[in-house]
Amino acid sequence: MSVIYILWLRQMKRYFRSRSRIFGAIGQPLLFLLALGYGLGAVYEKAGQGDYLQFLVPGIIVQTLLFSGVFWGIQILFDKRFGFLKEMLVAPVPRVKILLGNALGGATISLLQAILVFVISFGLGYRVHDWLMVPIAFVLMVILSLTLTSFGAGIASMVEDFQGFQGINNFLIFPLFFLSSALYPLTNVPTVLQVISYVNPLTYAVDGLRWAMVGQSHFGIWLDLLVITITMVASIAFAVNRFNRIQV
Q1: What is the DSSP string of 97-137?
Q2: CA quadruple 214, 220, 226, 228: dihedral positive or negative?
């Protein structure tokens, strides 16, 4: 456990020593909240759907976890490029512990950024539906951060350069986000878009958070939890498999 803790602590120290990462990570979520929350809020309300900001905040929190979690994998490429990963891999410790220590650090950072967006959203007018449900939302955020960080680590273990990593991420991340229900409800979308959203695990993460934070759900919390948990297990297994095969 000391190996995992030390590698986790390394990631935390690197994060808090870089203020630009802290402020830069919340720039895009705030832009979405301001531009969409206020820009489309009036249209959404006139359509009889209620307060769009209330609907949007859970989706933007998932977006924060998605972008920061998956892109965290680039830290593996940095360690590989500068030789630190090679030093860790030759140490007499299992590779799984090296992966877990680094991934837990990345997941913690993603979770902190999501909580920061959650807090800031109150200043924009968001209000929690039921404070008793907030711990459930927090659990969902923890599961999702572990899932996405592991997924990012698995992708980083497969590629050799930053350009390849960025290309694969952009190819995957934006469809996952825009084809989830983060920005729009699933009730009146075209059938093709609805089917794609149903097979997107991120849709269930958004729906679960929306159930806990807003009191709205399309699938039901138990189906959301089942899909998210299965996705987390699959992502961790994928990350362990690829990291065990990594070449430095």
Answers
A1: HHHHHHHHHHHHHHHHHHHHHHHHHHHTT---S-GGGHHHH
A2: negative
**Chain CA centroid to CA 168, Å:** 16
Alpha-carbon span 89 to 127, nearest angstrom: 47
Task: Say if CB 115 and CB 184 are below 8 A apart.
Answer: no
Of 35, 104, 26, 97, nearest to 64 by C-alpha is 26
The model's pLDDT over 176-209, given as tens digits with 9 standing for 90+, comes to 888 888 877 777 777 787 888 888 899 999 999 9
Give, as one character, the DSSP assignment of residue 187.
S
* pTM assigned to the model: 0.88
Report the C-alpha gap between 247 and 88 in whole angstroms: 13
State whether the Cα torsion 92-97-98-99 is positive or negative: positive
